[in-house]
Each structure stands twice: as structure tokens, then as C-alpha cells.
Amino acid sequence: MKIAARKLTRLCTAISVAIIAGCGGSAETETNYKSVDTTAPVSDWTLVWSDEFDSDAIDTSKWTHEVNCDGGGNNEKQCYTDSEQNAFIADGMLNIVATPAQAGAQLPYTSARLNTKYKADFKYGRFEMRAKLPSGQGSWPAFWMLPTDEVYGGWPKSGEIDIMEAVNLKVANEDGSVESNVHGTLHYGRDWPNNVHTGKAYAIPDGVNPADDFHTYAVEWQEGEIRWYVDGYLYATQRQSEVRYNSKQEAVGLKHRGWFAEYYEQGSGELVTHWDSTPFDQQFHLILNLAVGGDWPENVNNKGIDSDAFVNGQSFVVDYVRVYECGSNPETGKGCETVRPGYDDLEDALVEGEAPIPSPPSSGTAKNLTIFDDNFNVNWPAWDCCGGSTPALVADESRGNVVEFMVGETPTVNGFTSRAEFITDPSGKASPFDATSMLEAGYIRFDMQVTQMPSDPSAAWKFKVESQGASSAAELDLFASAEGQSPAAGSWQTYTFPLQQLADAGLDVSAIDVVMIFPAWGAGNGAIYRVDKVEIAQDTNLPSLTLFENAINAQWPLWDCCGGSAPAEVSDDATHGIVAEFTIGDTPTVMGFSSRTEVGGAGKPFDATAILAGGVVQFEMKVMSLPSTPDAPWLLKIESDNAASAVELPLSESQEGVAPQAGEWQTYTFSIEALAQAGLDPSAIDVVMIFPAWGSGSGAVYRVDNAKIFHPDGDKASGGLSLFKDQAAEQWSIWDCCGGSTPTIEVDEDAAHGQVAQFVIGATPTVMGFLADDDVYYDASHLLETGVVKFDMKVTSAPANIDAQWLFKIESNDASAAVELALNQSAEGQAPEVGKWQTYTFPLQALYDAGLDISAIDVLMVFPSWGMGEGAVYRIDNVEIVSQ
């Protein structure tokens, strides 16, 4: 794609602002209810099943009476019977009548519920009923559908479609309003009580009440979409969820939040969330019933049941039930849609569902965990295992809030836990910490002050960590920490335990859920101590791998593929010390480092995804003896995921661009991004090889040192992007979308800002900001949890239109995703003031939740409302996407 084409697309979007959203514009759709012809016949549908109720009795080949007193699962107050008193046909109408039960009956009312299960089952179509509804407090008529076979599990996991429900019609409320709503609803999701339902209420215009006359109620159900109608007017639409993917084709959110399904997959047995057409993709059957009371009607309007309303019976009168099939495509039900403007608009008919938003993809980096620092972490409460005390939050003169533990006569251990049974805060959840990716450089660290020693002065102080519900643990004395000290009463002391030390002591670091600090069991009586700044962390949040530096990495041993030699550690010059030495004999081979278990490795591939941009594979090599084939090319080969992908390159194609020279240490650097572009999957690197070309290496002896996979900038690499500070970032420009001006760099009178970007809006509507070059995108995924978009702005001249609103808009992946917010929706919550520098901060998490694909940000705009900005002059500085 050319940059001109991309700009033209955005320009066209801006020009079309009157009819679609774009470049800061918006569009509204207003529905004219009077323009809908509710008498028009159903079109594009073929009748495949119906009951016109023109016989003398209910057709038992079509309907089955349900007979029970189960209360419908909603604590309803009727028994369903097959008595003609509760369901009969008269004058070409089905009458379902709820009446008081005889004295001594199991429930106070009787009624009827009819279904078509195994007699008329349908997948997709139009389902329609013409009926007059009952009224009164406690009445609950329904025309609805349930799955014939619960393919995805019991209710509601296999779904429920409520075509029409109404409760308490014609009831006059205390505020003088009269209940007149009908409802269309879907039920779906997880097992009760975590099930969900979504739908919409509809009141017939002009104060018409559904209990006064006959009206037609219908749904049109097609693959992925269900629409609700009253008298032909479409009032609600629900859809399957639509997953949003980032530029790496990872699920990052939902374009539309609709329904979902969650069930155990056959074969794998895993509980999986589905955002597709399930569960509404199976056969359903029809149900007609009239309930009395229950959880819904008894808790709304005037509440309870008005027995006077049922003295003479309440009747649900049905003229007909009809089912149509879409002739265009019966398999999907698509092609016969009866729609109107606004049917797919969230401000009008479209209903947002309750589907869970997919978790953001992993950046490949374990984020540092703060268990305690000034306040409790709701997911990791402070904990007294067995002594009955409650660890307290107390104020320390020099440190702010700290946790205070005490040990009484009952033996106990104290610390912090993330097990569900000990979490009492409703917002907390069990959050075992996976420290696998920080095993090499990570640690657990805390500060402690003993204010009162145990009565047994010889009591040893212990540090214990458990994982996976105590299935593994490591217990060490405090003096085994990196600081090598025991507690001294009255002094704050720091204790650091490397994760590798804990793993060597038997801890599985993949699911740490308890951290304990305590005097030895049974010897701690009388101890009072304070703890602060408890964390599981590493000094860099970016993953790195040391293959060899002064010693063998036991998880990545030296490896001769096929020659039968044993690569060795040898001593080299004072600068390099111990290095790895490889020797090639007559048998062709390759050599290097492998993490695969069959050669003695740990079987833990290295995930370099988080350092894909800017990360490198780097090593030093000295050839002690050249191969007998002197012109043999020297190669680097890297494999991933058990050789599912691999890349092989000559060492001369390194960033240094040099071939090996005998007797000389030389550095070789290869970009991970370049390796990925050449076909390597960077997420599971498990072999790194350095060797003369296969079959031409005989006689070669060479040494390797400082072999690493890392990001040269360390933590700075995760610090984000500065879009403008004195000048625009490389490959970014200050930009006027559509007004034809050229934003400039000016020197501001405020010395703290210096050079700033200045934007001027003329008579032509436009938006302005910062634009990435063609095919340039910023991936902020690694900053999601803590990152912000932040900038300073000063308005030097306000727009002539005083109603103009100042807006912030950010786009991603060539405008495939965007979020627009008012500046007063920033963290600072302020609108611009003329002549004043002001800071605006927008959290990345909030932008992501609003629909932004943060993996490919390419436009950032700040502007007055489209078409209202003429006369505005404003300056922007310190534009950055960073971690707070």
C-alpha cells in the first residue's frame, strides 16, 4: 500500500462524514415509526409449519402438554395440567387459561404449557404468533424456544430464545405508569448461577397495550443473528460475537460483543469459550405457556400476585403460530432478512451481549508482581495460617503503611497467599504467579523489621514458598538470602532469594501461590514483625537467554549433533576467561547449544516474541584452527519448536558483515526480526548452531563466548515511544489530514517546552496530529497493563465556533480500528484553556477496552470537532506512548 493511497482513504472518510463516522465525525440514525407498514405481509419466506387452531381440539400431533408442578425453575405458583380448563380451542383460537387451584392443591394456580419437542423442531427461520396477552399483577405469558437436544450442556449452555414475554400487563404503578412492555431475550453462557441473558423491552407506540387486542410477535433467526418484531416492526437485534484480531492475528478483543458459549470440547476435555454462532446453531422447539408469579413478575411493578386478577381466570389467546423457512438459503436462514435502518445500531435496535472479552495476548514477558507495597493486594492477602491472628496494616514512620504479623502461643506461619479459600475481598481472585520466564534473572524480595523477638531467642527465621496448592515448596533460612543476614531487632533489612535458588530447592515456579516469612514452627511465640515491599520480580521485564557466559547453561548444554565429540569448557584470554570450545573431525556435523531433552537440555524453548522488535542473537567467536576446506562458509542456524521452523544464514550476513579470521575474537549479531522474516518462529527457539558448512568442517576448532539472545536496550526497550519532543519521531510526521496546511515546529515562549508542533485550522474541515510512515506501526502490546498515551497541549487561539468540542482520536492498522474521546475524558478530566499548557493522559487499557488494536498504532490526532475548528491554533509537545 502506498502512503498516498492511505492518506486518500482517510480523506475520503473525512469528506463522507455526513453519512458515516470518520476523521472525528459521527452519524445518527433516527427511526420514523410511522413509516413502518405493520400491515404488510411477510415476504421472502416459505411457510413450512403452522397451527391455525381451527380444529375442535388441540392437535396432539403438533403439541405436547407438559404436566408438572415444578414452578418452571423460577418459583412460579402454578401447576401445569392437560386439563381442558387450562388449554382449549374456541372460535379458532388457542386459549391458555390460568385459574385458581382447588383448596389443598400443591400450588395455588393451574395453567398450561405446550411444546412441539420432537414433533416440530427447527434450525433457523421466522417464528410468528398472533395473540392477545393476559394482564394483571403476576401474569407471565411466553412464546419461546428451547434446544431439542442439549448439545452444549444443560440450561442455559445450549441456549434459550424468548420470542415474546410480558409480565404484569396493565398494572398501574405508583408513579401512574401502566405496564405495557413486551420483551425479547436470549439466555446463554455458563452454568447457573453464572448464566447470562440479554434482550430488550418494547412498548407498542401510541399507548397501545398488548392485553387489549391481538398483535403479531415474531423472531427471524438466521446463522449468527436473531431479530425481534412486533406487528412487523423490528425492535431488537442480537448477534454472535465478532472477535477482533491484531496485526499478528491474535485475538485482542471484540468488534461486537454478542452472545457466546462455553462448554467442554470432546476429545481434549478442555473448557473452551466460543464466540461463534453457538449455541444458537442447533434445532430448537416451540413453547407456549402462561405462568403465574415467579421470580420476575413478583419482584416488579406492584410486586407479588394480585389474586383478584385471576379469580375468573386470565387468558392467553393465540390466533395462530407459523414457522417460515428462508428459501434463499435454508441451511443458514440468510437472504430473507426483514430489516430497517438502525436495526444494527447499538443506539437503536442492536443489543450488546455479555460475551467475555478475550484476554489480551501474552507479550511473552512475565510482569513483575507486587504482593505488598503500602497497601494490600486483593489477590494476595496477608495471612496467618494457624494462629488465629489478623495481620494488620500499620503506619511506619519512615515507610508508610506496612504489614504487621505476630505469633502467639499457637504454632503458626505468616505471610501472603493467593489461594481462593483465603481471599475475602469480593474483587480478589486466586492468581498463582508463573515465574517460569524470569527463572534465570528473577527473585523474590522483601523488607522486614522485627519489632519484638520470639521468647525463644534461638528460634531460626524461615522463608518458605509454595506452588500449586503446596504440591511443591522450598523452605530456607533467612540468612540463606543473597544478603546473607539474620534479623536484627529494630532494623529494616532486605532479603532477596533468586528464583533459581528456590527452584533448585524444589519449588515449581510456574504457579507460586504462597510466600511465608516466620520464626521456626513452634518457636515463634511472642514475635512481632513488620514486612514491606514484597515482590516477585526481575530487574528487566524483557526476556533474555544466556547460552554461554563463563560457564555452561545447564538448561542449554553444549552440543555436537553428529560427530561424536564432547564440546568442552576451556580457559582463554583474561578478557574472556572460560569459553566453549568445539572441535570437528572427519564426520560431518553441526555444533552449538540445544535445550531439547534428548540431548540433556531442560526442554524449555525460549520465547523471544517480546523482543521481536529490536532483539538480537549475539555471540563472540574465535577460530583456533580453520577447516581443511579453507573457503568453507561459516553458518548460524536456529531452530524452533522441534525444527518446525528454522533459518540458516552465513556469518557474513550478520550486522557486522564479517567472515571469521583465525586467532581473532569477533562479534556476530543477528536481528530476531530479520530471522523471523526469514521464516523462524521466535516463540519457541530450542537450538542455536554455529558451524562450518556441513561436510566441509573437518579440522575446525573454534571457541564461543558471550552467546545471548536479548534486547540491547534492556529495560529502555519497554519504555515506549516518544512521538514528538522537539521534533517528530523517526518515521512519524506532524500531519494535517484534509485542510491542506503544513503544521510547523515553533519555539514556545515557555522554556520548559522549547520546540513544539503547531497546528492551524482554516475554513476547510480537517483533523490534525501525528501520522506514521507507510507500513510503520507501533506495537504497544507489552505496555497494555501500565501504559498510557500522553501529551501536552496549549491552545493559543480558540475555534470561532464556541460549541466546538476538543477531541482525541487514535487509529491502528490503517484505520481498521479506532477510538475517539473528548479531551475531558482524559485521566485529568479537563477541557483546554486558552494560553495554558495542559497535560492529557489516556490509559492504553481503556483504549483497548474501547476497541483499539494496540499492536499497530499508526495515527494519533488532537482536534476540535469536525467542521467546527476554523480559527483554532494550538501547540502540542511531549507526545508519548509509555509505561506509567
Automatic annotation (TrEMBL):
Question: What GO MF terms are annotated?
Answer: hydrolase activity, hydrolyzing O-glycosyl compounds
Describe the location of the GH16 domain by residue ranges: 35-329
Keyword annotations from UniProtKB, A to Z: Hydrolase
List GO BP terms, alphabetically.
carbohydrate metabolic process
PANTHER family, per database record: GLYCOSIDE HYDROLASE FAMILY 16 PROTEIN, GLYCOSYL HYDROLASE-RELATED
Please give the family membership noted in the entry.
Belongs to the glycosyl hydrolase 16 family.
Name of the protein: Family 16 glycosylhydrolase
